[in-house]
Amino acid sequence: MTHDATYPAKAGQIPTFMQALEVQGLSDDCSRCHIVEMRVPRPGPGEVLVRIEAAGIGFPDLLMTRGEYQLKPPLPFVPGMEAAGTVALVGEGVQGLATGQRVMAGGKTGGLAGYGVYRADALVPIPDTLDFAHAAALRAAYLTAWVALVRRGMAVRGEWLLVHGASGGVGLAAVDLGRHLGLKVIAAISDAGKRARVRDLYAPEHVIDPADGIREQVLEITGGRGADIVYDPVGGDVFDQSLRCIAFNGRLLVIGFAGGRIPTVRANIPLIKGFSVVGVRAGEYSRRIPEHGAEDTATIVRLAGEGAIRPFVDRMLPLQEWRTAFGAMHDRTVIGRTVLLPHA
């Protein structure tokens, strides 16, 4: 329904209304999520209105629609934790950002809409070498990988890195970044087609099928040493098997529980085997140590601009096809990131 002559907007004009995906209630099948028209918000002091050209979606966005993520926004809400677009309007007191500037936007929600209001300090200029889609696929996944491997995992060049769920958004980022850091990467992927695709895209040293035995394969590959770093966004049985193939002084990085089951470990196991279980929450890390957060974000943006790391966009779909995108995530057919285009 068209409300007035400003929808859709003319060139350079901010419309009164926009389309957005709204979560009106929690459900297992997104049945209470709907495309709606809502008023375009206006920025307050220290805020910026961004015309969103691309929004990257990840598993946390899907979990939020079910109420299964640690962050539970009050209903109704617009999902979408990362986006990219152009500055449409700056609020009072904002400096260093200009109308028309290309930016990455990060927030807990709000990305799956035509426009979004963000704090000015949550915006990062997009390098000229990155398009909107790849900029929208960069920040969350690669910041997680950077904090995990560099800050929390203290990776050392030449170490063995085992990445579980290596074809997903955060897993693939760890494969890519691990290679850049000089780690010897073992990518664990259950689907044969995805194994071939990841091998072609990022050339990890080894790609394994977890069904063939994680422990046996990792110990054989590493000459009995085990993995120095385990990057685990899956949890469940994968975590349990990782306990049996981690090296002495290893770091088992807990990223998430995409497998569904939150695992446990008896304290005597890391004591006897001499490894650490390390929790990774990149967003919380950045909030607790903001100087590191700013430095880490600047680093991954610079590396992406230089082509040293390469976020992979599996598919780009109009916002109206959000159900297809979320369904592909649920069915685990996506490699890397899916990006939705609010104005397509």
Structure description:
- The protein has helices at residues 59-66, 132-136, 139-152, 169-180, 192-202, 214-221, 236-242, 268-273, 282-288, 290-306, 322-330; strands spanning 17-23, 33-39, 47-57, 82-90, 102-106, 115-119, 123-125, 160-163, 184-188, 206-208, 227-232, 246-254, 276-279, 313-318, 337-341.
- Strands 3, 4, 5, 6, 7, 14 and 15 form a seven-stranded mixed β-sheet that branches. Strands 10-9-8-11-12-13 form a six-stranded parallel β-sheet, sandwiched between helices.
- The chain contains eleven helices and 15 strands.
- It folds into two domains: 17-137 and 312-341, Medium-chain alcohol dehydrogenases, catalytic domain (Quinone Oxidoreductase, Chain A, domain 1, Alpha-Beta Complex), CATH 3.90.180; 140-284, NAD(P)-binding Rossmann-like Domain (Rossmann fold), CATH 3.40.50.720.
- Helix 4 (169-180) links the parallel strand 8 and strand 9 (184-188).
- The radius of gyration is 21 Å and the shape is globular.
- 45% of the residues are buried.
- The longest helix has 17 residues, at 290-306.
- The protein is 30% helix and 26% strand.
- Helix 3 crosses helix 4 (169-180) and helix 3 crosses helix 10 (290-306).
Structural class by sheet pairing and helices: alpha/beta
Helix/strand order: EEEHEEEEHHEHEHEHEHEHEHHEHE
User: Approximately how much helix is present in the residues?
Assistant: 25-40%
Distance between the termini: 17 Å
Q: What would the CATH topology of the largest domain be? A: Quinone Oxidoreductase, Chain A, domain 1
Shape: globular
- What oligomeric arrangement do these chains adopt? single chain
**E-strand count:** 15
Radius of gyration: 21 Å
CATH hierarchy: architecture of the largest domain:
Alpha-Beta Complex
Please write the CATH class name of the largest domain. Answer: Alpha Beta
Q: What is the mean predicted local confidence, pLDDT?
A: 94
Largest sheet: 7 strands, mixed
The domain tally reads 2
Strand residues, percent: 25-35%
Treating each run of at least 4 consecutive H or I residues as one helix, how many helices?
11
Low-confidence stretches: 1-11
CATH superfamily caption of the largest domain: Medium-chain alcohol dehydrogenases, catalytic domain
